[in-house]
Amino acid sequence: MTEAEQVLVLWDIDRTLLYAGDIDRQVYREAFAEVVGRPAERLPARGTGVTMPLAIRGLLMDNGVSEDHVPDLLPRMVDLVPQRLAAHTEDLREHGVLMPGAVAALRSVHDHPGYVPTVVTGNLKPNALLKLDAFELGNYVDAEIGGFASDDPHRPALVAIAQKRAQAKHGMTFTRSNSVIIGDSLEDVRTGLEGGAAVVAVASGKTSASTLRSAGADVVLETLENLHVLHDAIASVVSSHS
After folding, report:
1. Of 91, 79, 71, residue with least CA distance to 52
2. C-alpha to C-alpha distance for 216 and 192, rounded to whole angstroms
3. For the chain, what are the domain ranges?
4. Cα distance between the two ends of the chain
5. Residue 204 to residue 42: CA distance in whole angstroms
6. Helix count (H) and strand count (E) of the chain?
7. Rounded distance, CA 204 to CA 223, Å?
8. Of 142, 179, 143, 141, which Cα lies nearest the Cα of 160?
9. DSSP class of residue 120?
10. For position 242, what pLDDT does the model report?
């Protein structure tokens, strides 16, 4: 594959590469209590892929915070959540788990001369980097050209952000024809469909393979463990959109 045929590979993080367990929810609990001054009774749903700013907004509203107060409290929580997660770095290492095949899949995509691997994630950038570093995954992706919830809370917008950053760094244009999201949630599928990337969905999260397929994923894998299947999937979705 020549440089002109390079493919931008946009990895999701949570439940695609790793699972942080209850740590994200604990972080939300701590940040809410600190900012609002009382415990949260309802927490965001698990495994939806919704960006952190939108999840935090929902957390505030679901726990009786007046909509008039949200514009003040939301940015304070967005600033605090990475600090709270950083305090749980050891918990991440101890209680978080890598998804099956994730390390080998990341390494093989990173080592492929035709692929430009980065992340598009609902995590704020500091949270994403903390999670990747906790599992020693940071060297397999170029986070400088990724798209994060701290860039835009509307997840489909993150594709174009990553494409523009990759274009600036690599001097070539990335579009739907040479950009692929690898993720586990309906939000990952929607991000590709609306944002401008093909989608290789992995049924490693809370969403079934059939549901991911029905939502419009180009290819659905049960796992990342078979590297040949993964690379065939990336190649097939790129050729189908070119």
Report:
1. 79
2. 9
3. 3-20+97-241, 23-94
4. 14
5. 25
6. 10, 7
7. 6
8. 179
9. B
10. 66
pTM above 0.85, yes or no: yes
Structure token digits, residue 115: 């692929």
Q: Cβ of 92: how many Cβ atoms within 10 Å?
A: 20
Exposure pattern of 207-224 as b/e (b: 16+ CB <10 Å)?
Answer: beeebbeebebbbbbeeb
R_g over Cα of the chain: 18
Which architecture characterizes domain 3-20+97-241 according to CATH?
Answer: 3-Layer(aba) Sandwich (3.40)
| Of the candidates 226, 213, 219, the residue with the CA atom closest to the CA atom of residue 240 | 219
CATH of domain 23-94: 1.10.150
| pLDDT tens, residue order, the chain (242 aa) | 444 579 999 999 999 999 998 999 999 999 999 999 999 999 998 888 899 999 999 999 999 999 999 999 999 999 999 999 999 999 999 999 999 999 999 999 999 999 999 999 999 999 999 999 999 999 999 999 999 999 999 999 999 999 999 999 999 999 999 999 999 999 999 999 999 999 999 999 999 999 999 999 999 999 999 999 999 999 999 877 76
Instruction: Tell me if 3-20+97-241 shares its fold with 23-94.
Output: no
- Structure token digits, residue 69: 């107060």
d(CA 38, CA 31): 10
